Structures
1.
Amino acid sequence: MLRLAQRMSRAKPSAIMVIADKAKKLKAEGRDIVNFSIGVPNFLPGAHVYEAARKALDADTGQYGSNRGRDDLLDAFIAHLARAGLPGYQRENIAVGVGAKQVIYNLAEALLDEGDEIAFPTPYWTSYLDIAEIVGAKVKLLPCPSSQHYKLTPDQLDTAITPTTRVFLFNNPSNPTGMVYTREEIAALASVLVRKPDTWIITDDIYHRMVFDGLGYHNFVHSRPELRERTIFIDSLSKTYGMPGWRVGFMAGPVAVAKAVVTLNSNHITNIPEITTAAAVAAFSGPQDVTERQCADFALRRDRVVAALTAIPGVSCPRPQGAFYAFPDISSAFGRRHGSTRIDNDVDFCAALLDAKGVACVPGSAFGEPRALRISYTCPLPQLDAGLKRIAEFCGELT
């Protein structure tokens, strides 16, 4: 009998895209929809990026590129790392991919055998769990509720990471919560990780240029340089430069890990396109004003969102300090009704909110936290204000 591979029973479509697709469908049917669901930055890169792409198109040879990434792109990323306080990487430490998601998937294949343990905090980005399950890893979740501002504590980490934990995956700033770890918090976690020599560390820091309030970006390697020999840094063009559709991701880490990812690239993707490569080099090497301006704008939007959400009775929202997400706890609505619709969980809440008010949010259970929902606040300001007003109206109508 013909059948699919068993791993496909573990593969699930992105919960975020399911909501986004439903919102898109309703909008196409004529509904007035405010879409807070998909994590796109909603700005475009500078003109120099498009100019570089056009020049590359005119000079295109149609040939294959490098499995690791073209030298000028590797050098541009190395300079980018140095600006983030992570100098000293060489080309042999770097590998590229079709977005950060594909790099993380390659790392899962490179570092995890079936049954190996991977640990990461909850809430988590949806693809972490999906990728781990596809490759057959054993997942250990480290719950970080809103009462601890969605942040991992050193004691939790110390208890969770055992000699059988193959990989610890860490996201800072966080998707979905927007939380950012301080220098002191990173140092405390790093001190724990130093005592866990059998565990690889993956730091997914694709939002590290989107940090507010003067808090700054901090990495485990900043605090404890000895962790560099087993830490893999993940980055992407998507959020920093407004280029999610260009699909360019990176890793920097130990030579053996980078070599493994390059080998997998040779079997998966061969190379990222030359046109995209030229655009990426320009993004890293050219003016940074667009990114800086957007970070300031997101901080102002954050203030708007938090003020609106915390004004709703029963809703709590730890103050995000990075990325462009808010993650309010809406569990006070559970057991209540909106009209004839009973709301027993976050999925019910989001479904009723979309049906009644035309506001699309992602249920927190998609991120491992069923008491919350995620709001991506990058839409135009009139839509942002309208969506926040509709959420307040919806909550005010609950009985």
2.
Amino acid sequence: MGDTAKVKDASKGALVVLFLVTMIDMIGFGIVIPFLTYLVEDLAGAEGVTEIGLWVGLLMTSYSAAQFLFSPFWGSLSDRIGRRPVLMVGLVGNTVFFAVFGLSNTLLMALGARFLAGVFNGNIAVARAYIGDVSNPQQLATRMGIIGAAFGLGFTIGPFLGGELSAPALRWETFQGTIFETYPYLLPCLLASALSTVSLLVAIRNLPESLTPDMRKVDTTRTWSQQMKNMFGNSKKMLGEGSIAVIIWVAMLFTFGFTIMHAIFILFTGMPIIDGGLNFSEADNGRIFAMIGVTGIITQGFLIGPLTKKFGSRRLLTIAALLTGIGLVLIPYSQSDYAWLHILTVTCILSIGSGLFQPSSSTLLAQFAKSEGYELGVVMGANESLGAFARILGPLSGGLVWVLTSDGTYPWDFHTAFHLCGLLMLCSALLSLKLPEPKIFGASKEDSTQEE
């Protein structure tokens, strides 16, 4: 694999670009959450469509489905032509399709724009591969934590912007009689598009290529279809054997369990107190998710480095899955008398667990990929693709379990879906125990002084 101690170190500007790329990807994912149902209702009413829930589900899952299909492609392409051009293309796609979604006047147009936005949002895998290219072993966990903090910040900012900037003509006289009255959800989408444009300009100036020409895996003897077949063959091999397969499946189980919570959390907190819920409002739930995001940012931005030094990424992965599982299982055991104290405590626990898990899993993936001789872009792409698949399954499974059990009697009632979250986290933690300690190539005392 070569001497990984001689990696080209990342500049501060490059790390800022990667932070922005990841944050904007997650803003794009979360910005539609507050207004998606209303947008579908408006478009469906104009078209005489009655299946509101079906279209909301299609628009939510189309984004993750596109990421599932195209993350391996972008990761593999970045191995062959370089990380920089792929990241640039992603930012251009974000700029265009965020705006198109806000201008959608039919359900099919909205679905197409959302799917294409997901296609171009395979950037997280490439950003993580870039980090792996330009980081020595001592820097890797901390820098993956920077990407994780951007992930959490984007998911916190996105829903906030989507809610605050929707239907501006109804709230501010300035927007009355303008295009923003005709397209009430255009403003938050344009803001996301503008942020992507700014990131593109910053990237043009501050993002160098991380792969030298001799490091790029270009094969001119095979056709495009043969190269794609080889890419999927490598991905299938990675998912079937070795430490890479274990870590990807650990991450998939974790994401599956965590995204079940996305579908059922508000269903539980919005239930009447007499039925066992908390009777929270939309604003209450927004504050909870903001707190989850802030805790995750603190964990991934400040705690991951010292904790990785103390425990190591392999042990931290298991601890993180268990912490997250405990927090998820305890959510529905809140009582109205101390609802806020309980819910803030358990969501802090699960947020810390999630904040530790993401950079630890990415660090291990990069280390195992280097030690086992895999192309880093392909590895990160396969991981991101399976994660996107889990983000499709999670909400669908959570919603189905909720419908089947929420009116039952304990333990087969509204607690059941949260218990399923905990079971999947336990499976993730137990599977992580199969991981060996990764081989660290090129580590030295001199490297340890370079950690950022």
